Fold:
Amino acid sequence: MLKRLTIDNFALINHIDVAFDDGLSIITGETGAGKSIIIGALSLLLGSRADSKSVKDRKEKMVVEAVFDIGDYDLRALFESYGLDYFPEETIVRRELLPSGRSRAFINDTPAPVSQLKELGEMLIDVHSQHQNLL
Structure:
């Protein structure tokens, strides 16, 4: 379960820190409120391709970080296969895009390849959007 999402220097966002409570979370708002930017940052965090054009201030690094409670997901074996520390109550996933254009990813403060973010992300997040029922 996603517990907290922090975004710095991404698209139109200087800094936001959103805490999510237990249960269903729904992001709503008017057109242009920034919903898609938040979803874009979350997608980047979970393995989407990084693009330096999404950095607001290109002299500073962009950071997207999320804290997950993964205790109910039985992921110990996956973390062990990656050689990562396993903290089920508070797993931290972070993605940075440096001013040089270089991207870095971390799982529990250990450097990780984007492929690991993708695999882990597929187990942690489902995004359902408007009109998806038409697909």
In short: The CA atoms of residues 63 and 96 lie 5 Å apart. The beta strands are 2-10, 13-19, 62-68, 91-97, 103-107, 110-111.
